[in-house]
Amino acid sequence: MKKLLSLVLAAVMAIACMGFAFAEGETIKLGVILLHDEDSTYDNNFINAAKAVEAELGIELVLRRNIDESNACYEVACELAEEGCNIVFADSFGHETYMIEAAKEYPEVEFCHATGTMAHTEKLDNYHNAFASIYEGRFLAGIAAGMKINEIKAAGQLKGETPLIGYVGAFTYAEVISGYTSFFLGARSVCPDVTMKVQFTGSWYDETEEANAAKALIAAGCDLISQHADSMGAPSVCEDANIPNISYNGSTVEACPNTFIVASRIDWAPYLKFVCEKVAAGEKFDYDYTGTILTGSVKLTDVNTAAAAAGTVEAIEAATAALNEGSLKVFATDTFTVKGEALTSYQADVDTDDAYTPDTEVINDGEFSESFFRSAPYFDITIDGIELLNTAF
Amino acid sequence: MQTNRVKAPLVHLSRRDTLPLWHKAVIRLAAFILGMAVCGLVALLLIEKLRLDPSRMGEFYQSFIKGSFSTLARRWKFFKNVAVLLCIALALTPAFRMRFWNTGAEGQTLMGVLAAVAVNFYLGGKYTNGRVAWPDWSLLVLMFAASLIAGAVWGVIPALFKARWNTNETLFTLMMNYVATFFVSYCLIKWVPSGSSSLGKLSSGKLPTVFTGLGKSQYSDYLLIIILVGLVTALVYVYLNYSKHGYEISVVGESERTARYVGINVNKVIVRTMLLSGMLCGLAGWIIGAGLDRSVTTESVGGQGFTAIMVCWLAKFDPIMMILTSGLIIFLNLGADQISTTFDVSGAFPNVIIGIVLFFIIGSEFFINYKINFRKKETPSVTK
After folding, report:
1. Chain B residue closest to A177 (CA)?
2. What is the pTM for the complete model shown?
3. Residue A63 in 3-state DSSP?
4. Rg of chain B over CA atoms, in angstroms?
5. Domain A19-132+268-291 adopts which CATH fold?
6. Per-residue pLDDT at A16
C-alpha cells in the first residue's frame, strides 16, 4: 500500500513538475502562415489543427491568412520572428524558398514548412519539412471504394464491361500521383479487375474545373469518383449524378448525404504539438517529420454507412491493423507493374536541384519506400491500370 | 390680390463653385473619420471577440496603426508597398487622362514580371568555362529591358486595335489580363518538370546592396524601389503637365474631334500613350519580378492592377495626389490584415472594412461637388 502511495505521489509530482516547467518558461508562441483562409478546405484543415494545439497546450497562436507564395511570405515570416514567435510554420509548397531565406536570418527561431522538400539538403538547424504518410490513408479509402464497386458489380449496375474509377487530380506532381496510385492500389486489393482514369485540372483550387473534370469522367463511364483538389466541385457533381464519391481533406457528408463514402485527411495537430513540445523543452529536432496513422497524423472520417458497402468499416479496421504492424505495405512491388514489368529499381528525385535529377534508389526490400528519404512524397510513376486523360499539367 | 405660394422642396442640390483646398481637405477627413466610425460599428456587430468584449474597441483602431507602423520591418513594408502600387497607378494615369480606360494593368504588370523572371530563368545561374555567364548586373539590365518591352507590347495591342478598328478598350484590356494569367500558367508548367508549377525564388539576379546601415540588406532593395518610383512620379507629373505630349493627351481626352480639328493625330497619341502606360506597368513588373519575388506565379500582381484604378480615380489623375491615395489604400490593407490576425476573423472581413472606408471617401466627392440646400424657414413670399 505504501509502495503504491509513493508511486502515485511520485507520478503526481512528476506531472506537476512537467506542468510547472511548461508554465514557468515563457509561453510558446506559434505563428502560422496560411496561403488562403477558412474558405479553402486545405487551409481550414491547418487552422483547425493549430487551434486544437492552442487549446491543448495553452500556447499563443498567431494566424496570418492570405499570404502569397512570394516576397510577402518572407516579410510575414520575419515579422512573426521579430514579434516573438518561437516557431514559424507555413502551409503551402510555394512558401518554401521564402521561408528558408527568413530561417537564415533568424537562427534562434524554428521555421517549419508543410509539404516542402528542401530541408534535408539545405541542412539549416532551424528549418524543417513535414508531411504525413497520407498514402496509407488513401489506400484505406481505396478499400472502401473497391468494396462499393464490388457491390455495384454484384447488383449488375456497372456502367461498362469492367469497373472503372474516375479521379480528379490537381497537378501531375508526385504528391498527387502518390495519392491516386495508393488509392487505386487500395481499391484493386479488393476488386482485382478495376481500372482508373485520371483527369487533371492544373490548379489546387478551381471549383469549375474540378466540376467539369468530374462530369467528363462520369460521361466516360466511371462508376465512382475520387479527387485530390480542394474545392467542393467534384463531390457536388457526384451528388447530383448519384455517383459514389471518396473525398479528401474532410467529410463532405453534409452536402453529399447519398454519395459520400469516406474521406482521408492529414491531421496536422500531432506535428504542431510535437514541435511546440520540442521547443518548450529546448530540444532540437530533425529536418523531416513524417506523420503516420500511429502518430495520429493520417485520419479517415467516419464512414457514411448510407452510401458505403456493407462491411466497409470492418475491412478498413483490419487493413489499418495490418498497415500498423507492417504486414501490409501500400507500395509493395508485387502489387503493381509498370509497362507490364515489375519494378525492381527506381531512381527518384529526392534531393531538389535545378535540373530535377533523379538521385536516390527507392526500391528496397520489395517495396517503394515512400516518404522515407524525405517527408514529402516522391512516387511519380504511372502504373498499369491507370490512364491519364490529360498530362499537360 | 392673390397670394400664390410656391412650395420649395425640402432639399435641393446645387453645383458648388470650386471650394478652397482646406475646405475639401476637411470634407475628406470628415468622410474618413465617419467611415472609420461605421467600420467600428460593423466590426462590433460582426467580430465575435469584440461583441463579447467591447472594451477592445481601442485595440481595433490601434490595429490600423500597428499594421503599418509598429515595427521597423512594417514601416519599410508599408512604404515599399505604397511605391509598388503607386508605380502601377502612375502607369494608368496617362491613359486615363486620355479617357482610354485601361483596365489591363494587372496583365501588363504580370507580363513585366514574367519577362524579368524568364530572362533570369534562362540566363541566370549558368556557367561558361567555370565563370558565371551573365553576372547579376547584366541580368538586371536585360530583365529591365525585357519587362518594359513586355508591358509595352501588352499595352499597345489593345491600342492598335482601338486605333485601327475602334474596338472597345475596356473589354480588350480586361481580356488581356486573362491571357497573361494563362500564359504564366503555361510557362510554369514548362519550367517546372516536377509538375508542382511552383518555381520558387531564383538565386540569381539579385539587386545590388546599394545602401548599407539600414539593418537588413532587404531594406536597401526597398529603398531603391522607393527612390525609383519617386523619380517616376516626378517624371510623369512633368510629362503630363508641362510637355507637348501631355497637352495632346489632355486634348484627346477632352474631345477627339477638337483634337482632330487642331491637327493632332489622335491614333498616334493613343498608341504612343498606351506604349508608355504599358511600359510603366512593365517597370512595376520588373520591381516585383526582379526586386522582390525573383519568381512568378499567377498571383504575382495580386489584384494591384485593379486597385491601382481606384488609386488613380481617387486622386483625380494627379500623380502627386496619388502618393496620398495609394498610401491610404495600403494603410487600410495592412490595418485590415492586422485586424484579421488580432481578432482571428477570416476571409472577406478585411475587405469589408476597406470597402466601407472607401465608400465614404468616394461619397464625400459628392459633397465637394454639390451643395445641399435645405428649405429655409417660412419667409412669406408674395408674388403678383
Report:
1. B195
2. 0.89
3. strand
4. 25
5. Rossmann fold (3.40.50)
6. 45
Q: Does the interface predicted TM-score (ipTM) exceed 0.85?
A: yes
CA distance A160 to A162: 6
List chain B domain ranges: 1-47+345-384, 73-323
Please give the Cα distance from A66 to A95 (Å, whole number): 12
Dihedral over alpha carbons B127, B130, B136, B137 (to 10 degrees): -110
Cell of B376: 429655409
Per-residue buried b or exposed e for A318-355, using 16+ beta carbons within 10 Å of the residue's own CB: ebbeebeeeebbbbebeebeeeeeebeebebbbbbeee
In chain B, whose CA is at the least distance from the CA of A105?
Answer: B216
Domain boundaries defined on chain A:
19-132+268-291, 134-267+296-388
Class of domain B73-323: mainly alpha
Q: Can you tell me the distance from the alpha carbon of B79 to that of B327, in angstroms, rounded to the nearest whole number?
A: 8
| Strand-pair partners of A88 | A31, A111
DSSP state of B288: I
Three cell numbers, residue B232: 517616376
DSSP letters, A254-322, are TT-TTTEEEEEEE--HHHHHHHHHHHHTT----SEEEE-TTTT-EEE----TTTSPTTHHHHHHHHHHH
Q: Residue A349: list chain B partners with CB under 8 A.
A: 194
CA distances from A370 to A12, A118, A170, A340, A350 (A): 42, 16, 20, 22, 10
Compute the nearest-CA separation of A11 from chain B (Å): 38
How many CA atoms, within 13 angstroms, populate the side-chain half-sphere of residue A255? 15
- pLDDT per residue over A237-271, tens digit each? 999 999 999 999 888 999 999 999 999 999 999 99
Is CATH 1.20.1250.20 the right assignment for the domain spanning A134-267+296-388?
no
Contact B200 A94 (CB under 8 A): yes
Three-class SS of residue A173?
A: coil
pLDDT at A15 over 50: no
CA distance to A23, A355, B147, per residue, from A361 (Å): 46, 18, 42
Which residue in B186, B217, B293 has the most chain A C-beta atoms within 10 A of its own C-beta, making it the best mutation to test that interface? Answer: B293
Average pLDDT (A311-332) is 96
pLDDT-flagged residues of chain B (< 50): 384
* pLDDT of A205 above 90: no
Q: How far apart are CA A379 and CA B195, in angstroms?
A: 12
- Residue B241: CB atoms within 10 Å: 13
Contact A87, A31 (CB under 8 A): yes
Residue A101 in contact with partner chain B when CB distance is under 8 A? yes
Chains A, B: CB pairs < 8 Å: 85
Task: For chain B, list residues whose CB is within 8 angstroms of any CB belonging to chain A.
Answer: 71, 73-74, 77, 125, 185, 189, 193-198, 200-201, 216, 218, 288, 292-293, 295, 297, 299-300, 302, 337, 340-341, 344, 346-347
**Cα–Cα distance measured from residue B297 to residue B182, given in angstroms and rounded to the nearest whole number:** 10
CA distance A223 to chain B (A): 28
**Cα A267–A271–A276 angle (5° rounding)?**
135
Question: Does the CB of A125 have a partner CB in chain B at under 8 Å?
Answer: no
- Can you give the pLDDT at residue A102? 97
The sign of the dihedral angle between the CA atoms of A7, A8, A11, A17 is negative
- Quickly list H helices, B287-380: 304-314, 319-342, 349-369
CA distance A166 to chain B (A): 20
